[in-house]
Amino acid sequence: MEIRKCRTGILLFMVVYFFIAVFNTIPPKTSRVIPKPKQQTLPFLTSQESITPLFNTKHFMVSAFMDQRRKAHDIRIIGIFKRNSIRPLHCFFYCGQFFNKTTSASVLQHLAHFKYPYGPADVLCRMPENCSATHVTLLTQPSPVNVSDHIWLPIRNKKNPYEEKLNFTVCISTLYGDYNNVLQFAQTLEVYKLLGVNRVVIYNTSCGPELDRLLKSYSEEGFVEIVQWPIKKYLNPSSGWKVRVHKGDLQYFGQVVTLNECVYRSMERSRYVVLSDIDEIPMPYQHNNLNSLMASLHRKHRKVAVFILESHVFPKIYFDPSERFRLPQWSNVSGINILEHIYREDPDRKKFLHFKMIVQPKRVEQTSVHDVLRKFGGSLRVPWKLCRFIHIHVPRRTSLKLEELKVDKRLWDFQEKLIPNVDKALQRAGLLTES
Ligand SMILES: *[C@@H]1O[C@H](CO)[C@@H](O)[C@H](O)[C@H]1NC(C)=O
Ligand SMILES: *[C@@H]1O[C@H](CO)[C@@H](O)[C@H](O)[C@H]1NC(C)=O
Ligand SMILES: *[C@@H]1O[C@H](CO)[C@@H](O)[C@H](O)[C@H]1NC(C)=O
Ligand SMILES: *[C@@H]1O[C@H](CO)[C@@H](O)[C@H](O)[C@H]1NC(C)=O
Ligand SMILES: *[C@@H]1O[C@H](CO)[C@@H](O)[C@H](O)[C@H]1NC(C)=O
Ligand SMILES: *[C@@H]1O[C@H](CO)[C@@H](O)[C@H](O)[C@H]1NC(C)=O
Q: Which residues cross the membrane (predicted)?
């Protein structure tokens, strides 16, 4: 009797288990039926964050990418390395099983370290023959002592014919502090959309409460891709780029690392990448959008990898006197209203000019903030009358008086669509009371 009860129990358990298993695998009606690869459990830990300490070293791994543009290697791991403690490393691969031999890695430091103790570095490895690797990690000795000590990175940028191709991605490096410039953020993102931008990648260390809501709403919609960037957990990042003035371990929250990560993240999916800040807008002055601008530039300059543009400051201390766009519905939204800033500084071309870039990611190997240091192809200075960055900022040429600034109302050409789109975005995020 006891045995039979027990058997019935087991049988019941199996039936219930069977149903749970079956119903768990039935896709909900609304989802498209796409055959999914079987979820296998991997025999190691994969990194759950964008910054991963490298076992037995002072370095960090960020992301691993397939990169076969040079003969000497197939894999590029972007990292943050302690510059004075670089030792030989070995690449260890997983291709359905652990590959039984490591390959030696070469470490290519970036020049754009701004003399901080930590800097961006690329680790280059050759994938072993007959190993189609899905994951990689780095070792300090030629073979692993204990596999479970290592955290693995998935290898990204494997060619995916199904992935939708984007025309323009904007990379915004690190957001930090309690930055809460909601109105400018929403307006800028909506101008980007009108210019033909398909994706904005933002590296988030921290931000203010309303901006957090706005970004979450844009990220649900798919326009914004947030990469969490918890750099403060591991290092003491500086808040600038002059090592004597802005103390710390790493330049400007790891700006150069994030820009490079973004270029590689976008390489297989986006034709162009704009390397920018959120207070900057790449603005064509003779075309309606970035697509037609870049098509015309590309026709004349086929081998150009990097398009260099001047960034002109529109001082945020001067306002349009007509107050035409000081709209009542925005009065309670925190941040700058970009439509109110119509005065432009002409840069002093005898001194350092501030440049920003639009690049073809497939032709970029290593980038810095204002120039690309290693690339496949040339670079072109785009005439400022054709396209320039609108940079709403504190005055740069502080000696200039208001009368010496140029009136530039290019942003107003977008107002008809821009204003309702900004209102909708703020409403979606619950930051505007509906009228
Ligand atoms: C690694 O695997 C290959 C093929 O399975 C084998 O021929 C080779 O001897 C192995 N090498 C080591 C060091 O175990
Ligand atoms: C790779 O696979 C091919 C075909 O299976 C085999 O002929 C070759 O010896 C393998 N190479 C190595 C290094 O194991
Ligand atoms: C390997 O590492 C795991 C986790 O750190 C530990 O539990 C285990 O004892 C280690 N094994 C050996 C052989 O060192
Ligand atoms: C990219 O640009 C082309 C040409 O202007 C356009 O046909 C296509 O729809 C655009 N793709 C996206 C994702 O916006
Ligand atoms: C940005 O990072 C902070 C700190 O981790 C987090 O509280 C916030 O929710 C993040 N915001 C977004 C939009 O991911
Ligand atoms: C702005 O906030 C104030 C105080 O909370 C409120 O009285 C006013 O109606 C709000 N204005 C708008 C346009 O939402």
A: 9-26
